[in-house]
Amino acid sequence: MRDLHCAHARFVWNLAVEQHSWWWPGRGSAPRPAERQRQLAEARAAEPWLAGGSSSVQQQALRDFDRAMAAFFDPDNPAGKPGFRSKRGTQGFVIRDTKVRRLNRKWGEVHVPKCGWVRFRWTRPLPEKPGMARVTLDRAGRWHVSFPAPQPALDRQPAGAVTGVDRGVRTALVTSDGRHYRAPRISDGDAGRYRTLQRRLARQRKGSRKREKTRLAMARITAKVIDRRRDWAEKVSTRLVTDHDVIVFEKLNTKNMVKRPNAKPDPEQPGAFLPNRARAKAGLNRGILASCWGTLATRAEQKADASGASVIYVDPKHSSQQCRMCGHIARESRESQALFRCIACGHEDHADANAARNILARGLAAMGVPAHAPGHGAHARVRRRSSGAAGTTRSAT
Ligand SMILES: [Zn+2]
Fold first, then answer.
1. How far apart are the CA of 326 and the centre of ligand 1, in A?
2. What is the pLDDT of residue 349?
3. Gap from CA of 341 to ligand 1 centroid (Å)
4. Which of 36, 139, 274, 352 is least surrounded by Cβ atoms within 10 Å, i.e. has the fewest?
5. Is the Cβ–Cβ distance between 46 and 94 less than 8 Å?
6. Residues surrounding ion ligand 1 at CB below 5 Å
7. What is the pLDDT averaged over residues 366-374?
8. How far is the centre of ligand 1, averaged over its atoms, from the C-alpha of 333 (Å)?
9. Cβ–Cβ contacts within 10 Å for residue 25, how many?
10. pLDDT tens for each residue of 27-37
11. Taking 50 as the threshold, does the pLDDT of residue 375 lie above it?
């Protein structure tokens, strides 16, 4: 039945997308939400397959679509246009007036319409009255149930500490007070297995059972990385918000960060390319890093909002080439991946930390905090933590 709920929700969603794609300016109005609900009732009357399902699940799919449409038209928060949902992506549906009961410390049950009580692992505290719940089936074949709840405030003492955060290529994240956080990476073993599966998939017939099995195995590797990445973003964002009143991030277009690794031309054969495994793996890791960034910034923003701290974004232009002492901008000052040595004043610093300090200085300037020189204030009000394990993600909770 859960599979069927997913199929119904997908069907109804796609129906709404189709109606919208028939619409263009001048053609009159696209169906309004109320009219779509009426059309759903008609479709249920005509289709026994749909009628056998839960109308509340199907109505909720329409409401989901309306929300996605509203987001698409929101000028302040441009979202992508809602598109067709395929059988292959993440599947899901929403339950209203959710009933939940606890079985023991680890397990609970949620009531799914026309399906009955379904057991789930109780991984975090639930809101008093859950209201809605979203049930999803991810591409790795795992079911999840999530309950929307406001972000609770973190336990923190405002002390005026500020920090700038630079996205490094190797370390993922360097703060202006010199802490390094490594993002999770795909392991050598998993990267190898993934490539093997990818090659196998390319040879397999579309729609075949074996191909589906390969796809599932690939999705399981991806899911493992996604889990670790989410975990990382949770821990690091908590740490940043607990320790600082203001966190300055670079304004990023994460899409630009995910670039395919360049193919390496074969010098012997013009027009041919050498296989390059290191680059393929670098490509996988780059993708992971980019998505870590997006998740981290979003979670830090949500936690800051709930806890009386703030996250601001600044233009990252030249932040890695500018000297934080004299403000001189030169590509040559960045001697290597790790070292910054200003060609104008000779100031030396760790390259990523120098960039993070520039970002912080820009954030302070944006907030109207006077700065005597670029980078002033970088150390000024940063509390030093005596935690010995500072700088590793493991200690950040
Ligand atoms: Zn300088």
1. 4
2. 92
3. 8
4. 274
5. no
6. 323, 325-326, 328, 342, 344-345, 347
7. 64
8. 9
9. 5
10. 555 667 777 77
11. no
